[in-house]
Each structure stands twice: as C-alpha cells, then as structure tokens.
TrEMBL record:
Transmembrane segment boundaries: none
Gene3D superfamilies, sorted: von Willebrand factor, type A domain
Lineage: Bacteria, Pseudomonadati, Pseudomonadota, Betaproteobacteria, Burkholderiales
Biased composition regions of type Polar residues, renumbered to the chain: 168-183
Annotated signal peptide: none
Name this protein carries in UniProt: VWFA domain-containing protein
Amino acid sequence: MAIITFGSQVALHQPLASASDIHWQDLSAGGMTPLGTALQMAKAMIEDKDVVPSRAYRPTVVLVSDGGPNDAWEKPLNAFISDGRSAKCDRLAMAIGADADEAVLGKFIEGTSNRLFYAENAKQLRDFFKFVTMSVTIRTKSQTPNNVPEASVIDIQPVTIEARQDKQNSVTQSSSTEDGGYW
C-alpha cells in the first residue's frame, strides 16, 4: 500500500509497503487539489518495475477527493487510464462532500465496472475502505487474483451516489407523511 496526498502540495505520504509493515500517520485534508501532479506521481510509481514488480498483483488505485482539481489534470488523467501499466490498474473513486465534482471523479473510473462512491461523513468513508480492503483480500486469496470481484460479492455495501439519491427521495416522501417531517 502507498499513499499519495495532494493538498497544498503533492507528497508521498506512505511509500509502497506491505500493509502489515505500515505505521499509520494521520492525514489532513485541505488546501488546493493538484490532481494532475498526484496522478503523475502515482503513474511513475506503477510504471517503475523496481517499485511495482511485474510479478505483483494488479494494483488497485483509490482516488479520494472533492473532484475539484486546480491544475492541468486532463492529460495526466488520460495518460493514467490509457497508457502503460497504470491503464491495467483497478480504479475506485470516492467523492467527498455534497458539492464534489462527480464528473471529474467519474472520468477516473471510466472503463471500469466500478461505481463512484460518495461520503459525507466518517462512517461512509470507513465503509468504503472496508469495501476496498475486502475486495483486495478476496483477490489475494483467489486463484485468479487479477480478476476484480463485483461489489455484490462483498458483504459491505458502501453508500453510492445513487443510493444517496434514493435515500433523499424516500426521506422527502416519508417526511411529508409522518410527524410533519420532524424525524
């Protein structure tokens, strides 16, 4: 697992290491969103066979962002999803906040069977990473570890944008019929 942060600057927060060897250091969110530079760093790591050997499992790349990049991100994103070894990665994205730019994050997962996940609170973020962990765990124990399991195979269903919209619709309908909407 490796972690690249991209707030006011892009940094390799956690170099690639086995999950059991990682000593967690807290992350902080804020600042700008230099997505293009972060994608270039991630791509460089994936393309470097000394960092990610050919015999390694197919990488899973998780993008957690508000989807509001403030740098030249289009070319680095297109290169990441279209060229070289990074194009073969499984890609997941989580939109953070109610005003997240779903179009930018959707481009990151374009061409995969993955849906865009959404978090407005810590529980949804935790559930998403449980899903990611279970997905990777299932793959490592599989006879075909480079095949990505569908979300329905995993018993954790993170909140998606579609589920959030369905929930909002049902809350709107039920609030008008129950207790004047106070609950």
